[in-house]
From TrEMBL:
Belongs to the LysR transcriptional regulatory family. It comes from the Bacteria. It comes from Acetobacter sacchari. Gene3D superfamilies: 3.40.190.290, Winged helix-like DNA-binding domain superfamily/Winged helix DNA-binding domain. This is LysR family transcriptional regulator ArgP. The keyword Transcription applies.
């Protein structure tokens, strides 16, 4: 039988990054947190936390954190059926870890969160990552749900096809006139400054191969911010690929132009959530599906 107060202390250290902040979160002393974690590790015969700044979970620690999250979600459902005045099952609010990519968070995902939080007191802990890597956060146990580009179901999870986030290559009219006077050509793409999100961002290479059969080689500005991509493109710093739902108003008012009409690129997105009979996960999944249906391109299988 697991010691859940000790398990809660371990999870707090991992989530807060250290023993002192965990103590503040749990409203106990740092020595009490340390004693609970030490007791847990002695009973398990294994280390759960890599001590450092910040502290990090071992593989076992991550699994135990995921287990605790699932237990708290189930307890949250059970609490509704307990007699009034019964002792609370958990000392802290239930928080649901979700991995999501930056472009979804900047476009359609806030609508999903608004729908979800309107019907529950469960809190969310968002983990930003590239859509190609969010599924790994599920596999590690760091989160219980994720927006991902990975079509392969994570073990123990249910998968839902959401649709596709469409991207458009765009720039300010002045930038396009200066760098693409003859349209988008391999030569122009090799010279015009471009924006990339980070070193793992493979979307630009996909678009350039599809549009002109070339690889990225132009001067590159690095900006790990969805909002910055739009702002920097509008003021003429570089051209960039941007989510259509985010830039549609700027295309309409002429502040941005589509550099290559007919060469948009779609990134299929999926929702993966732990296969757990918890009402919070069901409500979240319903909210995500509803929000995605309003903003994303239909899944390929549903297109005419």
């Amino acid at each position: 039988m697991l010691d859940y107060p000790a398990l809660s202390a371990m999870a707090a250290v991992i989530r807060e990054g250290g023993f002192e902040r965990a103590a503040e979160r749990l409203r106990i002393t740092p020595s009490a947190v340390s004693q609970r974690v030490r007791s847990l590790e002695e009973k398990l015969g294994a280390v759960t936390i890599v001590r450092g700044k910040p502290c990090a979970p071992t593989e076992l620690g991550a699994l135990l954190c995921a287990h605790l999250d699932k237990v708290r979600l189930m307890e949250n459902d059970l609490a509704a059926h307990l007699p009034l005045g019964a002792v609370a099952l958990s000392e802290s609010a239930v928080t649901l870890g979700i991995a999501v990519n930056a472009d979804s968070l900047a476009t359609w995902f806030p609508d999903a969160l608004a729908r979800f939080t309107a019907s529950t007191k469960v809190l969310v802990d968002l983990k930003l990552d590239d859509e190609a890597h969010t599924a790994q956060r599920l596999r590690s146990g760091e989160v219980l749900a994720a927006v991902t580009a990975d079509p392969d179901p994570v073990q123990g999870c249910q998968i839902t096809q959401l649709g596709a986030l469409r991207y458009v290559a765009c720039a300010s009219p002045a930038f396009a006139e200066r760098h693409f006077p003859n349209g988008v050509t391999p030569g122009a793409l090799a010279e015009a400054p471009v924006l990339r999100f980070d070193r793992r961002d493979a979307l630009l290479a996909r678009w350039m191969r599809a549009a002109c059969g070339v690889e990225p080689s132009a001067p590159t500005h690095w900006a790990p911010s969805t909002a910055a991509f739009v702002d920097l493109a509008m003021i003429g710093v570089a051209w960039s690929l941007n989510p259509l739902p985010l830039i549609r108003p700027h295309l309409a008012d002429g502040r941005l132009i589509d550099l290559a009409p007919g060469h948009q690129i779609d990134v299929p997105l999926y929702w993966q959530a732990a296969r757990l009979e918890a009402s919070a996960l069901r409500r979240l999944t319903d909210a995500v599906r509803a929000a995605a249906a309003l903003s994303l391109e239909p899944p390929a299988s549903n297109r005419p």
